[in-house]
Design goal:
This protein is of the alpha/beta class and 206 residues long. The protein has a single domain, classed as Lambda Exonuclease, Chain A (Alpha-Beta Complex), CATH 3.90.320. The chain is built from six helices and six strands; from the N terminus they run βαααβββααββα. Strands 1, 2, 3, 4, 5 and 6 form a six-stranded mixed beta sheet that branches. The longest helix has 29 residues. The chain is globular, with a radius of gyration of 20 Å. It starts with 7 loop residues before the first strand and ends with a helix. 19% of the residues are buried.
Length: 206
C-alpha cells in the first residue's frame, strides 16, 4: 500500500476525511498549510509545556505497523509509567461566545482512540482514561489614552491565555479501538488508490 508519506498521521487521517482536495494539496503537492496567529500561538504554548517539568510526561513519538499501514503520532503528554494520554488545546471562544470544547465534543474526538490504538499496539496495553486540557485564549488588548479617556482595542496579531483551564476526562473503550482500526485501514486504502490514480494522470512523480 503506497501512501504519499511512508506513514499515516492523525492529522492526515482527519484531513482526508474532512477534505480530500485539501489533503491532495498538502500531501501530493506539498503545499504549505495556512498558518494563523491561533495555530502559531498554540505551537508556542506546546513548547512551553514541553519545557515545564511540572507537566507529567512529555511529547512522545509513538508509532506502530497496522498491517500494510504505518501509524505515527505525537502525543502531547504520555506518562511512561501509566501510559495515560493528555492532550492540550489552546483556542478561544467563537464569535457568539461558545466554548470550542465540551463533554460531547471530547467524547466524539477520534484523536484519542487513534492514539490509544497506537499505544496498545506498541506497548501491548493502554490506559483507557484520557484527558483533554483546554486552555482558553484571547486576543490581547491595546490601550490608548485620548482626551482623558482610555480606549481599548484588540490586537489581532497578539494572543494570550486567559488563565481559564477546563479539564475533560473520558474513557476510551476497547470497542472504540476496533472501530478506529477499521476506519484507518479504510481511509488508507482510499488514499492509496487515489494517490495511484493521481500519479498516473499527473506524471509528476517517478
Amino acid at each position: 500500500m503506497e501512501l504519499p508519506r511512508n506513514y499515516l498521521s492523525y492529522s492526515a487521517f482527519a484531513l482526508w476525511k474532512s477534505s480530500k482536495e485539501s489533503y491532495r494539496k498538502r500531501y501530493y503537492l506539498n503545499e504549505e498549510t495556512f498558518d494563523t496567529i491561533q495555530s502559531r500561538f498554540g505551537k508556542e504554548q506546546h513548547q512551553v509545556m514541553e519545557s515545564n517539568t511540572d507537566v507529567k510526561g512529555s511529547e512522545t513519538k509513538i508509532e506502530c505497523d497496522l498491517g500494510e499501514v504505518k501509524l505515527l503520532g505525537y502525543v502531547d503528554s504520555l506518562c511512561p509509567d501509566t501510559l495515560k494520554i493528555i492532550d492540550f488545546k489552546f483556542s478561544h471562544k467563537s464569535a457568539t461566545g461558545k466554548d470550542p470544547w465540551d463533554t460531547v465534543k471530547v467524547r466524539k474526538h477520534q484523536q484519542f482512540p487513534y492514539y490509544c490504538l497506537i499505544v496498545n499496539k506498541s506497548y501491548g496495553r493502554y490506559n483507557p482514561e484520557v484527558e483533554l486540557h483546554w486552555h482558553e485564549t484571547r486576543f490581547q488588548d491595546n490601550t490608548t489614552e485620548f482626551d482623558g479617556h482610555t480606549l481599548k482595542s484588540s490586537d489581532r496579531n497578539k494572543m494570550e491565555v486567559t488563565g481559564r483551564l477546563e479539564v475533560f476526562k473520558r474513557q476510551v473503550q476497547e470497542y472504540e479501538l476496533d472501530i478506529i482500526e477499521k476506519e484507518i485501514i479504510k481511509v488508507a486504502r482510499e488514499i492509496a488508490e487515489d494517490y495511484k490514480l493521481w500519479k498516473s494522470t499527473n506524471n509528476t512523480l517517478s
